[in-house]
Design a protein that fits this description.
Immunoglobulin-like; integrin binding; about 10% helix; 4 domains; 26 strands; transmembrane
Length: about 350
């Protein structure tokens, strides 16, 4: 039996109870301490008393009568449920009373490790399919103060908090569902375990981050410019390239085909022959990998050399007529204004 209770019994038939306003003060009233670190809290009674002390599972302080404060102190706090309470025996009006003040104590521990993996999957992901990422957090406390944050690159994707009141270290798992697209190829996902310990806790809040998980996304080919293309060349033009600019993962294979010219080559770029006959020539490029294929058309219009000569002649005549018309307008306007043109 503790000395405080023994003292109350010895004095006779006195009343021992907890009052609504306990005349003791804790300094500080609440403490956040890392597991294994030191802790020290004073309990002060401003008025007269018959005894003051600390009840705790570790480092309890026996009741003393000749002091105004007592200190609960540990060099290394390793107990998760110490439950420290300061108590005082004093005269309340004409009766003996005892009151207690519980220390608001949070003991925390950062995790041993934080890691991220893909559940039931290895190798590349496929665009449009769903995958589950899992974050494993080992030996963290208290879990009610834990927030798990998921990032894609530097962007916060999701976060989860917990209501478990367990004070001792536990293992925690968090999951994130993703449906990657081609733009996610090479993206890095990570998870962060953050302990939000309130205003008495350390700033910034303790956090541990996993190593990033880089994802490889496979997707069918697509064209940077999906529209069919058309271009004009003259008969003497040589080495006109047709660029089949397609992306895919795995990198696509390319094939070309033209019914009129019987061309079929495997290359991203086709250089058409300079000996093509006048008229339209249609080339189809197909990009393919194991996930699918995509095609687009290139229409090459070959213009005879004579047509080009006539065209440039007409352009020259048009330019000459335009110059004469402008000069005539300037002369007429100057005469109308009374000016002479030399």
């Amino acid at each position: 039996m503790r000395k405080g209770l023994l003292w109350a019994f010895i004095v006779g038939f006195c009343v021992v109870y907890t009052v609504s306003e306990c005349p003791i003060q804790l300094d500080p009233p609440s403490v956040v301490v890392r597991h294994g670190d030191p802790v020290s809290v004073n309990c002060t009674m401003s008025g007269e008393h018959k005894g003051i002390g600390w009840e705790a599972s570790v480092a309890a302080v026996d009741m003393v009568t000749d002091v105004q404060f007592v200190t609960w102190r540990l060099e290394h706090l390793t107990d998760w449920n110490t439950g420290p309470r300061c108590y005082v025996n004093y005269m309340n009006n004409t009766e003996y009373a005892q009151c207690q003040e519980k220390l608001q104590l949070i003991v925390y521990k950062t995790p041993d490790s934080v890691s991220i993996s893909v559940v039931n999957h290895t190798g590349p992901m496929v665009e449009g399919e769903q995958y589950q990422l899992q974050c494993e957090i080992e030996n963290i406390a208290p879990v009610r103060n834990l927030t798990v944050k998921w990032y894609k690159g530097e962007t916060l994707e999701n976060q989860t908090s917990y209501e478990d009141l367990t004070k001792t270290p536990v293992n925690v798992s968090s999951t994130l569902l993703i449906t990657p697209t081609s733009t996610d190829d090479g993206e890095q996902y990570s998870c962060v375990a953050e302990l939000e310990l309130g205003p008495e806790g350390p700033e910034p809040p303790p956090e541990d981050k996993s190593e990033p998980l880089s994802i490889n996304v496979h997707y069918p080919p697509f064209f940077s410019n999906p529209d069919d293309e058309a271009l004009e060349v003259t008969e003497e033009k040589e080495g006109v390239p047709l660029n089949c600019d397609a992306q895919g993962n795995p990198p696509p294979a390319f094939s070309w085909y033209s019914p009129s010219d019987h061309v079929e080559k495997v290359s991203q770029t086709l250089i058409i022959s300079a000996s093509l006959s006048p008229g339209d020539h249609v080339y189809t490029c197909t990009a393919s990998n194991h996930l699918g294929e995509n095609s687009k058309k290139f229409t090459v219009k070959v213009i005879p050399r004579g047509d080009q000569t006539v065209l440039w002649s007409l352009i020259g005549v048009g330019v000459g007529v335009a110059v004469l018309l402008i000069a005539g307008y300037v002369i007429l306007k100057s005469r109308a204004d009374g000016n002479s043109i030399i």
